[in-house]
Amino acid sequence: LTKHTYYFSRQKNTNIRLTLPVVCFVWQIAMIILFGVFIRYDEESDTHWVETKAHDNITSDIENDFYFRYPSFQDVHVMIFVGFGFLMTFLKRYSFGAVGFNFLIASFGLQWALLMQGWFHSLDPQTGKIFIGVESLINADFCVAGCLIAYGAVLGKVSPVQLLVMTLFGVTLFAVEEYIILNLLHARDAGGSMVIHTFGGYYGLTISWVLYRPNLHQSKRMQGSVYHSDIFAMIGTLFLWMFWPSFNSAITDHGDGQHRAVINTYLCLASTVLTTVAISSLSQKTGKLDMVHIQNSTLAGGVALGTAAEFMISPYGALIVGFFCGIISTMGYIFISPFLEKTLKIQDTCGIHNLHAMPGVIGGIVGAITAAAASESVYGKQGLINTFDFTGDFKDRTVLTQGGYQAAGMCVSIVFGVVGGAIVGSILKLPIWGDPADENCFDDEVYWEVSEPATHHLLFIIQPLGGAIVFDLVSRDELQTTFEIFI
Amino acid sequence: LTKHTYYFSRQKNTNIRLTLPVVCFVWQIAMIILFGVFIRYDEESDTHWVETKAHDNITSDIENDFYFRYPSFQDVHVMIFVGFGFLMTFLKRYSFGAVGFNFLIASFGLQWALLMQGWFHSLDPQTGKIFIGVESLINADFCVAGCLIAYGAVLGKVSPVQLLVMTLFGVTLFAVEEYIILNLLHARDAGGSMVIHTFGGYYGLTISWVLYRPNLHQSKRMQGSVYHSDIFAMIGTLFLWMFWPSFNSAITDHGDGQHRAVINTYLCLASTVLTTVAISSLSQKTGKLDMVHIQNSTLAGGVALGTAAEFMISPYGALIVGFFCGIISTMGYIFISPFLEKTLKIQDTCGIHNLHAMPGVIGGIVGAITAAAASESVYGKQGLINTFDFTGDFKDRTVLTQGGYQAAGMCVSIVFGVVGGAIVGSILKLPIWGDPADENCFDDEVYWEVSEPATHHLLFIIQPLGGAIVFDLVSRDELQTTFEIFI
Amino acid sequence: LTKHTYYFSRQKNTNIRLTLPVVCFVWQIAMIILFGVFIRYDEESDTHWVETKAHDNITSDIENDFYFRYPSFQDVHVMIFVGFGFLMTFLKRYSFGAVGFNFLIASFGLQWALLMQGWFHSLDPQTGKIFIGVESLINADFCVAGCLIAYGAVLGKVSPVQLLVMTLFGVTLFAVEEYIILNLLHARDAGGSMVIHTFGGYYGLTISWVLYRPNLHQSKRMQGSVYHSDIFAMIGTLFLWMFWPSFNSAITDHGDGQHRAVINTYLCLASTVLTTVAISSLSQKTGKLDMVHIQNSTLAGGVALGTAAEFMISPYGALIVGFFCGIISTMGYIFISPFLEKTLKIQDTCGIHNLHAMPGVIGGIVGAITAAAASESVYGKQGLINTFDFTGDFKDRTVLTQGGYQAAGMCVSIVFGVVGGAIVGSILKLPIWGDPADENCFDDEVYWEVSEPATHHLLFIIQPLGGAIVFDLVSRDELQTTFEIFI
Question: What residue stretches are annotated with the Ammonium transporter AmtB-like domain (chains A, B, C) (predicted)?
Answer without folding.
Answer: 64-446
